[in-house]
Write a structure and sequence with these properties.
This protein is of the alpha+beta class. It has 13 helices and 17 strands. The chain is elongated, with a radius of gyration of 43 Å.
Length: 438
């Protein structure tokens, strides 16, 4: 539809829209392109709306001054054409519209129309995404390995079982079973041909709600009461009734309720050591033991899996006998934990996956043990290996005792000190644990 306004009025509107002074340029002459500071399409649309609103108001005011055309229309009169105005009549009353600044945080468009993203945001995204992915992988990997472990029945169900104490107590057992080993593996590991299954090592890992954790060796020749079999060596409990009877025996002897059970065999132990890259030992004198298949020179050296197995099994020719072997077992466990938490292991996704799943394949866990128990056990082992926990053996009266019938050489606990130590643990208190060492 044609514009009904006169040419001067229309020209005035165009002058106002493009910020030209009234009368600039001759009528009909080409005008220079207006200089504007319009930033984007949204700003142009806002200016157009402001212009149209201003024009509507001006027309309404003109109609009111001419006697109200709306009333005339209601009376049947024809609307009057707008009276011509001199250019610039109301120019001074118009206020320029300020450009709209982009809203904070909104994306801006570059000259090519593409969205420009903040360099800081791009940097944060480039850093945070890989870090979060690595953290997720690091947490999920041991959980997956834990779920893939072989499980064994271990929890006893005897009447009057010991009640729960604060914290978590895990029974760690090294089995001397040769089952599943080939002839070549038996020769390599020097396990011999003994039949049956006994516990070559027994350790109790206690992690309190707060305070230092403690790893306690229980000598395998400890003379205790095995339920249903009378007083005998504690390692016989496993051969008599497996993990369940061993757990019941330890609970009766210590007064602590066992919350979890972990078992590793000869081959599994060697695999774990190889998976973490070996363990470092320093010997004051050569170590030779044909029964443990070990022949090591004096000095500091890194042991592979088979040599490390002989190192923790050695007792013949050791002045400390079984106590020296228990001490070396705790030493190697601490070293394995230390190597597991090295940045070179944790930060390398391939190595982290390989090591954790090698551990899972070498160790059996008690049936029903959950991820929370795993977390408590891990905290305890890392505490001991890092030096903030304690490592000791059950207080002993003698290592040269004899069984009641005088046929077996056994280890006798110091009943008074051992009872006091386990009583402290039953209350969740490890603050005085150092007094029971040695």
């Amino acid at each position: 539809m044609a514009d009904s306004r006169d040419e001067p009025s229309r020209q005035e509107d165009l002058d106002w829209l493009y910020r030209r002074a009234p009368g600039d340029g001759a009528a009909g002459a080409p005008r220079a392109a207006p200089a504007t500071n319009i930033a984007n399409d949204a700003d142009i649309r806002r200016r157009e709306r402001a212009f149209l609103e201003q024009r509507r108001r001006r027309q309404a005011a003109q109609q009111d001054r001419r006697g109200g055309p709306e009333r005339d229309l209601r009376a049947g009169a024809q609307p009057a054409a707008p009276a011509p105005r001199a250019p610039g009549a109301d120019w001074a009353h118009r206020e320029p519209v300020a450009p709209v600044a982009p809203a904070p945080g909104r994306r801006r468009h570059g000259p090519d129309g593409r969205i420009r993203r903040s360099p800081v945001r791009r940097t944060l995204r480039a850093v945070l995404v890989p870090v979060l992915a690595w953290l997720l992988f690091t947490l999920v990997t041991p959980i997956h390995a834990w779920s893939a472990m072989t499980t064994i029945g271990w929890e006893p169900s005897y009447a009057g079982r010991v009640g729960n104490q604060p914290g978590t107590a895990i029974l760690l057992v090294g089995s001397d079973s040769r089952d599943g080993l080939s002839e070549e593996e038996r020769n390599e590991l020097g396990t011999g041909e003994a039949e049956g299954q006994r516990t070559d090592s027994i350790m109790l890992l206690y992690t309190p709600p707060s305070g230092e954790s403690v790893l306690i060796s229980i000598p395998r020749d400890s003379y205790v009461t095995v339920p249903g079999y009378g007083r005998t060596k504690i390692n016989a409990a496993y051969s008599y009734g497996g993990a369940e009877l061993l757990t019941e025996t330890v609970e009766q002897a210590t007064g602590l309720r066992i919350d979890g059970f972990m078992e590793v065999g000869f081959a599994g132990f060697a695999d774990i050591v190889d998976a973490v890259g070996g363990v470092d030992v320093c010997l004051d004198e050569p170590m030779a033991d044909e029964k443990a298949n070990i022949d090591l020179p004096a000095g500091c050296q890194t042991l592979n899996g088979s040599d490390a197995l002989g190192y923790v099994r050695h007792r013949y020719g050791d002045a400390e006998g079984d106590l020296g072997r228990a001490r070396r077992q705790r030493e190697v466990i601490a070293q394995i934990a230390t190597r597991l938490k090295r940045p070179s292991t944790v930060l390398n996704p391939v190595r982290w996956w390989t090591v954790t799943h090698a551990l899972a394949g070498a160790v059996s866990r008690g049936d029903g043990m959950g991820v929370l128990t795993m977390a408590q056990m891990t905290r305890g082992v890392l505490s001991v290996s890092g030096g903030s926990g304690a490592s000791l053996q059950v207080p002993l009266e003698t290592t040269n005792g004899w069984s009641d019938d005088g046929t077996e050489s056994v280890v006798i606990w110091d009943s008074e000190r051992a009872s006091a130590m386990f009583e402290d643990l039953s209350r969740g208190d490890t603050s005085n644990i150092a007094q029971y060492a040695g």
